[in-house]
Amino acid sequence: MKNLSFDKLDVLMVLLVGEELSERMGDNYYNILIDSPFLDKLNEDPYYVHYYDPVYWTKWIVDWYDNQN
Asked: What's CA 25's distance to the chain center, in Å?
């Protein structure tokens, strides 16, 4: 696992996406969030990620997850 570096706004985004994701995916949301490419994307291009709201990223993660299964 590579090192990820997040500031306070990044952590807030992760928390908000996690909250939205838990409502849609239930108790397994944490594993889905960790396994998804979202955290890497946030680490690599935080300006791009913050341009969109947590609901957008939740849908993006759910779509990614659905395509994995």
From this structure: 13
Whole-structure pTM value: 0.91
pLDDT tens profile 6-64: 999 999 999 999 999 999 999 999 999 999 999 999 999 999 999 999 999 999 999 99
What burial letters (b/e) apply to 43-60, b meaning 16+ CB within 10 Å? eeebeebeeeebeebbeb
Domain residue ranges of the chain, discontinuous segments joined by +: 10-68
DSSP line for 2-67: ------HHHHHHHHHHHHHHHHHHGGGHHHHHHHSTHHHHHHH-HHHHHHS-HHHHHHHHHHHHHH
Count of other CB atoms within 10 angstroms of residue 31:
11
Residue listed under structure tokens 């397994």: 28
